[in-house]
Amino acid sequence: VEHPTEDKAKTEPRDPQDSDDVLDNLEYGRYLKEVVEILESDPEFKKKIENASLSDIK
């Protein structure tokens, strides 16, 4: 039994834009992690976040 979608995926080249999106997402993830680490290193900010409600954070 042949599956047309599988055959199509094998023959069509990958879109280079897809790999750029993945790279952008990885870079953005690293950036967010760095920002969170910096903010958590500030004792005053950390205290404010710990005492904030979910609606305050949104």
UniProtKB/TrEMBL annotation:
Domain called NUCB1-like N-terminal: residue spans: 4-58
Organism: Rotaria magnacalcarata
Biased composition range(s): Basic and acidic residues: 1-17
Region (Disordered): 1-23
InterPro entries: NUCB1_N (IPR057576)
Name by which UniProt lists this protein: NUCB1-like N-terminal domain-containing protein
